[in-house]
Amino acid sequence: MPAKISVHSGQSIDRISENIYGHFAEHLGRCIYGGIWVGDDDRVPTEEGIRMDTVELLQDLDMPVLRWPGGCFADDYHWEDGVGPREERPTRRNLWWAQGREERYVETNEFGTDEFLELCRLVNTDPYLAVNVGSATPEEALDWIEYCNSDGDTDLTKRRAENGHEEPYDVTYWGIGNENWGCGGRFAPDEYADQYRRFANYLNGFDDHINPGSTEFIACGHITEEWNEAFFERLDGGMEFGPGTFLGMGSPYKLLDHFSVHRYYQAGDDADFSDEQHYRLFARAEKIADDIDSAAETISAYVPRGDVGIMVDEWGTWHPQATPDNGLEQKNTVRDALAAAGVFDIMHERADVVSMANIAQTVNVLQCLVQTDEDSAWTTPTYQVFDLYQNHSGNTAVEANVNADKKYFDEEDHDVPLVSASASVGDDELFVTASNRTIEQTETVEVEVDGAFGNPSGTALFREKGPRAYSTADNAAEFKAEDISVSEAGEGSYAVDIPASSVVGVTFTK
Questions:
Q1: Active-site choice (110, 118, 179, 349)
Q2: Which of 21, 132, 202, 361 makes a 20 to 30 Å CA pair with 432?
Q3: DSSP-H helix ranges across 23-127
């Protein structure tokens, strides 16, 4: 059956947040040390110890937000270990990614708050800090937000000035814990709700009294509906004074701006997988749609619509090759990039509820966008998908109905449309992205558009590469976008041949 994409430019979903194209960097393997921070190593150009070849690639991507320091690392991290003169900073354990086996799992604290925020300045991205809930206190979290954001005359702001940063950093996004149902403390949902309320109360107090309206707070959710329901039930209704009263301070929901879910997926090895596993990876990535829909339904039962956004602040492929022993590194293939394109299509379709997403992770680790060795840095196929799809950023998502053949699976996994697509409107342009998930077959796809849009121009990624291809320092340029032809197929209808295992973007103008 020929595939067809019917785009309804007048049927708006909502604005696509720039932050959907966000990123995540953790003290894990070579993500920070080696990938971003090299200190005094002069084998690559640096600025204040940050390797600039990585920075330049990220600058070209216009990344909107970067989450740090974790991940599991966050809930065993004490921010004061990583500020001040580097030669005086303590050496600590890296609990979750160490296993106590090798020196590389020891945390030197060379890269801390000021270094991270300098990286954000260089890349021109918004920082997102994850607060330690599992092994720290509200006082420590409150000190951190004061160090970063206060312009008052206090000991902490003086310390920041002594460390070379007199002006406040104005960090907006603050995650209160990470995976607190697991590595972040193994809290039951009601226990985490109590901890969240406690931490957020003090951080929000800073926001209310020192920098009104300057910060947004993120709670850690779960992919299990029952866990999320228990969290929300306890957050507002767990006080003896009854829901919403909270001693006259208003509902605790005022302490919550975003609610996060995490989803990783795999099927077979990173670059050595069967044809069946090729398609099953997309089926498992589709579960992100379930996670978002479930969280949205739970939120709507407790919080006025639109008051709390959903963040997918860890997502991506996690193949069996990526283990703590190798720093969670894996080959990043075209198949991974196709899966990422499908996830973006899912989030565009839910632009009315998704407020941010942060792929794991930025450099060298898991489904990274940049890889490095001692001498150079290069982009992965997933980087190219981000680059293409960011043309949707800030646009209004519109309905794009796909009619295509499917690959069917058992009840464990979703059925997989062999073509995935999404569309958005902005500045007198209609932008449509589509991916052909078939392994060997070119798909001639009809794109039907309404309204006054025409004059199509197209680009394609990964033509003739194949799903098992992955980038290296020598071949990364081969994965960049190429022009592709789009022909008229009737009034308001256009045809584009999408090569096997490739992604296209088509721009229509008025």
A1: 179
A2: 361
A3: 52-61, 95-98, 113-123
